[in-house]
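Hi Q.,

Before the meeting this afternoon, I wanted you to have the adenosine-5'-diphosphate prediction in hand. No need to reply - just skim if you have a minute. The sequence and ligand are here:
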Amino acid sequence: MKQSGGDILAIPAIEVKNLNRTFKTKAVKRKSKAEIVKALQDVNITIHQGELFGLLGPNGAGKTTLIKILCTLLLPSSGQAKVLGYDVDKEAHEIRHKINMVSGGETSGYGLLTVRENLWLFSQLYGMPTKIAKKRIDYLLKVMGLEHKKDSKVRTLSTGLRQKANIIRGFMTNPSLIFLDEPTLGLDVNASRLIRDFIKNWVKEKPGRTVLLTTHYMMEADELCDRVAIINDGKVLACDTPANLKKLINQDTTIKLEIRQVQDLSAFEGITGVRSFTHSHNITAGITKLKFILDDDATIADIVTAVPKSGSKIVSVEKTEPTLEDVFVTLVGRSLVNNDI
Amino acid sequence: MAMKEIIQKNIQTMKWSAWLGWQMESNWTNPFKFLVYTIARPIASTLILVVMYLIITGGITYTDQFHYIYVSNAFFMYVFWVLFGITWVIHDDREHFQTMKYIYISPSNYFSYMIGRTLSKIIITTFSIFITLAFGVLFLGIPLSLTSVNWPLFLGVMIIGLLSLISFGLALAGVSFLTAKHSGGVNESIAGIFYLFCGVVFPVHILPTWAIAFSKILPITYWLELVRRALGLGVGVDTALASISTETSLIILCVSTIIFTIIAFSIFFLGDRLARSKGLIDMTTAY
Ligand SMILES: Nc1ncnc2c1ncn2[C@@H]1O[C@H](COP(=O)(O)OP(=O)(O)O)[C@@H](O)[C@H]1O
Ligand SMILES: [Mg+2]
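Predicted structure with the ligand bound:
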């Protein structure tokens, strides 16, 4: 290696400049034209070594596409992407020694082999020395609570356990940089907690370890990440620490309102000073939850007076801290996920 | 990296991918199933051939023609299993096991990985061929014995022939990168072409003139003929090939293997590159 010890950490873990990626989708019917999907548009991101960096965005935003380009699975259409100083296209081989990738929500692995055999195979494809490979596999099996399943055939495992095994495969090679594509997708609360804690500790354990994870759970991004890029329709809309992102929208002006027996929600539309407004119904309870992001406190009064006009009664009013979800709503104009507000 | 280290790493990759291939074929939950697949399957397919032959000839098994067909079919198993096997490896790794992307982004050379998987197919097929030949000697009067074999010729021919098969497998792997699991057809057609034109079910000389010319540019034709000569079975049956001396056949086999290998490598690397630019390395049928 050319660099001396100090310089190595100065190289960005990831440096993406004007990156574009398009896909041609095949025409579904003979008459319909093949469409061009812009999965990534002029993306610029620099991630430093040692960071736990999150890509937050809804399904189809382009998160997986970016990860695929960075982990040398996919070539960019145009622009530049460097990983640990190496070009993803021309120097893929240099990159592969230093990275690993895990994508969640899938059941990968050779079903006929045991958990241990699967991991062992990959340790050998990474050229890990026998002793180290055995030690790391055993250690990670223990940490992930998979020790009792180590000699079970992978195909007998539940999806959640297979995902844990996949995560072990990723961390086992001790990468400098790991890509985690929706690592907790489809997992139960406990498993997600375990994996999040593991990721957090792993980054801290050694200086220079970097994580790039994607998620569409804003809590996950908020809790885990040092910095977050909000991505939608292939474009990076904002990139900062969760705290700074929240500062983009005024601290004190997020209002949660619960009202009963609402008849006409249009009473809440068009109030000046409301930056965004989302709602969800709980039909069985007859309660509607409203969430407003306001320019300033003065608008609260206007909202409260709109309640009787909508034919409903107030159940509760609450002023809340903004979340990354609110940031997303403000930037994009719609909700990140279509569930509760 | 030093040359030696690079070679060691690639051998390591081949070793473990061959191990994986072996596990995948033999780990059918129990050894019984494995035996069924490696012994019963080749014998059954051989018996079908024998029955067909007996119907056509009216029950004659001791002729050179029969030996010709028996030996050619036994060794054609290599062509069949390697050609099909490689495509399956790519499609299964990608869509069924979803491991291809992880193997692809590992520091291991995917090329070496594929060679390893091919080697395990070859080893298992060798076992099946051995069983088939033994069955022929024991029950069908195939006149083959350890002393009747021209060993130097046999080993030389096997090494060159298997090299050209590996190249062929790699070329198909390059194509398989770009095809989806159920698109099929390519390898079936190629195996079919070899089956018809390389002197497997019938001698080349009964083909029309243009087909004989075509047959004479396929390395498999020479490979099978040389295998027959080395084993001393069905020699001279194929009058289209009988006039070509063993030395000439060997030279043609070597030269065509080299040309084939160069073409195959190019196809593999082109397929690899195209797959990476089109985003097909982790393609599932959903797209
Ligand atoms: N191989 C592909 N072929 C065609 N379109 C694709 C392909 N991969 C991704 N896309 C499209 O690109 C966009 C971004 O996808 P993706 O990166 O998977 O989003 P995310 O991971 O954020 O959900 C989507 O519109 C998706 O349909
Ligand atoms: Mg995705």
